[in-house]
Design brief:
Its main location: membrane. This is Receptor like protein 33. InterPro entries: Leu-rich_rpt (IPR001611), Leu-rich_rpt_typical-subtyp (IPR003591), LRR_dom_sf (IPR032675), LRR_N_plant-typ (IPR013210), Plant_LRR-RLKs (IPR050647). Belongs to the RLP family. It is a single chain. The chain is mainly beta. Among the domains are: 223 residues, Leucine-rich repeat, LRR (right-handed beta-alpha superhelix) (Alpha-Beta Horseshoe); 162 residues, Leucine-rich repeat, LRR (right-handed beta-alpha superhelix) (Alpha-Beta Horseshoe), CATH 3.80.10; 231 residues, Leucine-rich repeat, LRR (right-handed beta-alpha superhelix), CATH 3.80.10.10; 36 residues, no CATH class. Helix content is 10%, strand content 25%. The protein has a 38-stranded mixed sheet, with no helix packed on it. A 15-stranded parallel sheet has the order 15-17-19-21-23-25-27-29-31-33-35-37-39-41-43, with no helix packed on it. Strands 62-64-70-72-74-76-77 form a seven-stranded parallel sheet, with no helix packed on it. Helix 8 crosses helix 9.
Length: 1134
């Protein structure tokens, strides 16, 4: 009873009486005037609207007081003063209405979110002179905003926003004319309206005519900066939104003087410079959005306890440094978005005191340290800390009690330890993303999995081990499960009730899973992607009569140990588009009719299996498929390609039959239009089959084709890649080959072609980047018709019978990187005209070049060269001491840009060039190791003088051969600083003096030859130089010491090595002899087959490919081996 006597109770009673007496009659005693009702009913009839979508107009009933109608407001006299008809699906009638403009007492008109069929804003709206609030936003108006609206002098709020991208923009050609009379305006929203105004005049116009403006929103209006200081005159401004304008300016300091500012939104404005930190400390500021200003930098200040910030969005800016501990003063903060910035240091533990926090995104920064426990932030729904450098374990305490948490993103950090099973069953958690961390151990079975709300679980690319918990597969709402790139092992158990699964994506690839594939995996009704590649699944897959995974779109079982015939039920999945079975042991025949039922199948990859031949269970009947890509490479397919195969593949974009045992084509046949056709490495013979027209990639290498049609160019007019290398082609190169105006790669190497090179190949084809004609019987002059701006990157004419002079027009090829004309009979001087080009590889070996290497006027010559072979020519003269000083391609400073001769054609095929070099007296073909290979071979010429001192600058050089010349003087001691050298041959010169002791530090030397010079003195002691045989030093009468059988002291027998130390005993330690013999024998067993047996080399590099693919797969995630194994011909597709 004491409450009735208090002043507070008395005040409540008085207020209640006032409301009943004075306010209630507004809605009860005064009714709508009859004329006003008639106008509204007429307005309803004038408007065309969707009655099923309407919630207000459709309810207007003439039998009821119109002031009670939804969307209608009246004054005390019964006049209509407010119409709220937003979201009413009105699409016509406004422009011709008479009743609307007769509502002379109307103060508020809201027609937002309708669609008036793309009409202009009616000028007659200006007749409503009592309007204070006008909202026409997002209602499909277009054209110019009528300047007549400026007559509405009483307007307080104007909203003409139009951000609907599907319609033409509204335009304001003269902002001043529109607003000059609207001095009472408090709210102005023109989002999406194109304001045509010079520079930053918009600032001066607004500040001059709208001094009382409180809310200003000009999102995406085409405004430009800088922001003029006149804007500071808007002292009452509380909301400022300028997003999506190309302001390209700094944020002015005077923004911090807006004492009433609550919202500042400047995202996507191309802002730059340093953001004024005082703006953060405005006590009234509640919402700040600076996102997507990539050049805007700044730091977070010390936040004050008086802060009102609720939303802080700085994503995709250049803000940096640490997050302040004072962030806990932002007690009202509910949303933090700081992703894709440059914040570093630990996440302050005080952030967990933000009890109002709903959304936290700190992803894509450089944050370190432990993850704080968020158990105080009970309202959190979203946590994203991914792509940082956070470390430490993850425990159940981190998210304990967060019953509203729906998203946890911790991907790409350095988190370790076991995963707590309680994490998977947080009551509201829907997405858990923990991929690319270092979590290990085994995942325990989940407690009460049926209560989980998880629909996305990503644990991929960690170190998780053991069996995959069966409870993961019974999570009732789980749709996407990513466990790839871990170390899970064991078998996958059969699902007890596969029909209940909601799984859409199941990715278990790149683990150590084994055993048979459970048939229940193919019975999940919603499954779209089943990815099981790179495991150890084995055995035969049992047929399933009626598979129910009707949604299955992608099935990848590649890189396992699966055996037996390809299951027929795979082709009964009606929605299946991609089927990858490569790198298994499937055998038997390929039944073409299996594909008859898979009408949506676009990609079928069955490479690297043991399929033996094509077969058909339905005779020779033909049918069409939707196949876009078919890869049957590296099987054991034999015999002829059946005629019906080509009918089935009509419409293919990619067909790969390489590395099989196919011998021909069953007649009659017509190869359909195929963009990429690879028939390489088979046993196809006879005349080349007519290529399909419009094809862009044609690979016929490594077969036995013997004839090239004269009109071949007419059939490959669209080809970008054409290779017939390693066949048995004879005759001349048809001139019709020049009809291929799109050709980028032409490889006719390793055949028996004769005659001359058609000059049209060099003078007319503007796109040809790689031309390989090596190892043929071509003769005559090299065409000197290379046109200006030619596109050649690699030209290989080696091992032919070319004569005449060097083609000087090659200087017109600015992109040329590889030039090999070795083993011909070209007679000319050194091609100085190429010294300033992009050339990286120059091979002139075994020709008749003569003269010295001096290039008049040279200053920066050969800066890119990495491989140069001038051996077996007639070059003469001295090499100047600074001759090699500009060869930066062989210096450490250029190491990351060393030779990578891969060329990408316009249709995304990579071509790998090759170079023949002489290493240790053996001819080797370099392919993949070109990336790090550098070599100089000047051997077998007549060079004289001293070895240039500048050669020691080439500290990335691997092979140096100056043998069989007439060099004299001493060996430069500084060669010992060329730590990368693996082969050094200075034999058969006139070198004198001692062998520099510094050479003993060349620990990578595998080949060393100083024989047949005039060297003297003792061979330097060390672990390296004594490992070479006496042959490396023979022919030097003055040399002595091990390994020569000549003692440097005539009274002491030759020394020997024991236990790594020098001893003067004469007995032999056979342990070292046998160890050396064993090492040499083992190395020979490994290396010699690589050098002399191409098939062995092919198989070896295949295995290397497999290892590299596995390594890269572990590092980069879900990289799949679905293409053909890389063939090792002279120009290769990677």
């Amino acid at each position: 009873m004491k409450l009735l006597r208090t002043p507070q109770f008395f005040f409540i009673v008085i207020i209640s009486i006032f409301c009943i007496t004075y306010i209630a009659p507004v809605y009860s005693q005064f009714k709508c005037l009859e004329d006003q009702k008639i106008l509204l009913l007429e307005l309803k009839d004038e408007f065309s609207f969707n009655s099923s979508a309407s919630r207000k107009l459709v309810q207007w009933n003439e039998n009821k007081d119109c002031c009670s109608w939804d969307g209608v407001g009246c004054d005390t006299a019964g006049h209509i003063i407010s119409l709220e008809l937003d979201h009413e699906s009105i699409f016509a009638g406004l422009e011709n209405s008479t009743s609307l403009y007769s509502l002379q007492y109307l103060e508020k008109l809201n027609l937002a979110f309708n669609c008036f069929n793309r009409i202009q804003i009616p000028r007659r709206l200006s007749n409503l002179t009592n309007l204070t609030h006008l909202n026409l936003s997002d209602s499909c108006f277009y054209g110019q905003v009528p300047v007549e609206l400026s007559a509405m002098r009483g307007l307080v709020s104007l909203d003409l926003s139009n951000l609907n991208a599907g319609f033409q923009k509204l335009e304001i050609p003269d902002l001043k004319m529109l607003v000059q009379n609207l001095t009472e305006l408090r709210q102005l929203y023109l989002d999406g309206v194109n304001i045509s105004i010079k520079g930053n005049d918009w600032c001066r116009v607004l500040s001059s005519f709208l001094p009382n403006l409180r809310e200003l929103s000009l999102v995406q209006c085409g405004l430009s900066g800088p922001i003029d200081s006149s804007l500071s005159q808007l002292h009452s401004l509380s909301v400022l939104r300028l997003d999506w304008n190309p302001l390209s300016t700094t944020v002015p300091d005077f923004f911090a003087n807006f004492s009433k500012l609550t919202t500042l939104s400047l995202s996507y404005c191309l802002l730059q410079g340093l953001f004024p930190s005082k703006i953060f400390q405005l006590p009234t500021l509640q919402n700040l959005d600076l996102a997507y200003n990539f050049d805007l930098s700044g730091t977070l200040p010390q936040f004050l306890p008086t802060s009102s910030l609720r939303t802080m969005v700085l994503s995709y800016t250049n803000f940096s440094r640490s997050l302040p501990d004072s962030i806990n003063n932002l007690i009202m903060l509910s949303r933090i978005e700081l992703s894709n910035c440059k914040f570093s240091g630990p996440i302050p533990s005080t952030i967990t005191n933000l009890t109002e926090l709903l959304y936290l995104d700190l992803s894509f920064n450089n944050l370190t340290g432990l993850i704080p426990e968020f158990h105080m932030s009970k309202k959190l729904t979203h946590i994203d800390l991914s792509f940082n450098r956070l470390s430490g374990p993850l425990s159940s305490a981190h998210f304990e009690g967060l019953s509203n948490l729906g998203y946890i993103g911790l991907a790409s950090n350095l988190l370790t330890g076991n995963l707590p099973s309680s994490l998977f069953v947080l009551p509201s958690l829907q997405k858990l993303v923990l991929n690319y961390n270092q979590f290990d151990g085994q995942i325990e079975e989940l407690p009460n999995p049926v209560s989980s709300q998880l629909n996305v679980l990503d644990l991929s690319t960690n170190n998780l081990q053991g069996n995959i918990p069966s409870s993961l597969f019974v999570l009732p709402f789980l749709q996407n499960l990513f466990l790839y790139n871990n170390q899970f092992d064991g078998q996958i158990e059969e699902h007890p009730n596969p029909e209940s699964s909601q799984l859409n994506i199941l990715d278990l690839s790149s683990n150590n899973l084994q055993g048979n594939l459970p048939s229940s995996l193919f019975l999940f009704p919603s499954l779209q992607n089943l990815l099981l590649s790179n495991n150890h699944f084995d055995g035969q897959i049992a047929e399933i009569p009626n598979p129910v995974s009707s949604q299955l779109n992608t099935l990848d079982l590649s890189s396992n140990n699966l055996q037996g015939p390809i299951p027929k039920f795979f082709f009964k999945f009606q929605q299946l588009q991609t089927l990858s079975l490569s790198f298994n042991f499937f055998n038997g025949t390929l039944d073409l009719d299996m594909m008859r039922d898979s009408r949506n199948l676009t990609t079928l990859e069955v490479s690297h299996n043991n399929l033996s031949m094509f077969s058909s269970s339905n005779g020779n009947s033909t049918f069409s498929t939707s196949l876009d890509k078919l890869d049957l490479s590296a099987n054991k397919l034999k015999g002829e390609i059946p005629t019906r195969f080509w009918g089935m593949t009509n419409g293919l974009r990619y067909l790969n039959l390489s590395f099989n045992q196919l011998t021909g084509f069953q007649n009659p046949y017509t190869i359909p239009i195929i963009n990429t056709l690879d028939l390489s490495s088979n046993q196809l013979r006879g005349e080349l089959p007519i290529p399909p027209s419009l094809s862009t990639y044609l690979e016929y290498s490594n077969n036995n084709f013997n004839a090239l049609p004269e009109d071949i160019g007419n059939y490959i007019s669209r080809a970008r890649f054409f290779s017939l290398s390693n066949n048995s082609l004879t005759g001349e190169i048809p001139k019709s080959i020049c009809n291929t105006s799109y050709l980028e790669v032409l490889d006719l190497s390793n055949n028996a072609l004769n005659g001359s090179i058609p000059s049209c190949l060099t003078e007319s084809n503007g796109r040809l980047g790689v031309l390989n004609l090596q190892r043929n019987m071509l003769s005559g002059n090299i065409p000197d018709t290379f046109s200006i701006g030619c596109s050649l990157k690699s030209l290989d004419l080696s091992q032919n019978f070319m004569t005449g002079r060097f083609p000087s027009s090659l200087v017109n090829c600015p992109y040329l990187e590889v030039l090999n004309i070795g083993n011909n009979s070209v007679e000319d001087t050194f091609p100085c005209m190429l010294m300033n080009t992009s050339l990286r590889v120059l091979v002139l070996r075994s020709n008749s070049f003569y003269g010295d290497l001096y290039c008049p006027g040279a200053t920066q010559e050969w800066t890119n060269i990495q491989i140069i072979d001038l051996s077996v020519n007639k070059f003469t003269g001295d090499l100047s001491p600074s001759y090699f000083s500009n060869w930066k391609g062989m210096m450490n400073s250029n190491y990351n840009q060393q030779l990578d001769l891969r060329y990408k054609t316009a249709d995304d095929h990579y071509i790998q060039a090759t170079v023949m070099v002489i290493i240790k007296g053996q001819q080797m073909e370099l392919q993949k190791i070109l990336i790090v290979f550098t070599s100089i071979d000047f051997s077998s010429n007549k060079f004289e003088g001293n070895i240039p001192g500048s050669i020691v600058d080439l500290n990335s050089l691997y092979f140096l051969n100056l043998s069989s010349n007439a060099f004299k003087g001493t060996i430069p001691a500084s060669i010992g600083n060329m730590k990368q050298l693996e082969s050094l041959d200075l034999s058969m010169n006139h070198l004198t003096g001692k062998i520099p002791g510094e050479l003993a530090s060349l620990t990578f030397l595998a080949f060393f030859n100083l024989s047949f010079n005039k060297l003297s003195g003792s061979i330097p002691l060390g672990r390296q130089l004594q490992t070479f045989s006496a042959d490396s030093y023979e022919g030097n009468a003055g040399l002595c010491g091990f390994p020569l059988n000549i003692s440097c002291n005539p009274n002491i027998p030759p020394p020997k090595f024991e236990n790594g130390r020098f001893h003067g005993k004469t007995d032999i330690d056979w342990n070292y002899i046998f160890a050396s013999l064993g090492f040499t024998t083992g190395l020979g067993i490994f290396v010699l087959p690589l050098l002399f047996f191409p098939n062995w080399r092919e198989r070896y590099f295949d295995q290397v490919d497999q290892v590299l693919l596995k390594i890269f797969h572990q590092q980069k995630g879900r990289k799949r081996r679905t293409g053909a194994r890389v063939p090792r011909n002279q120009i290769r597709r990677l």
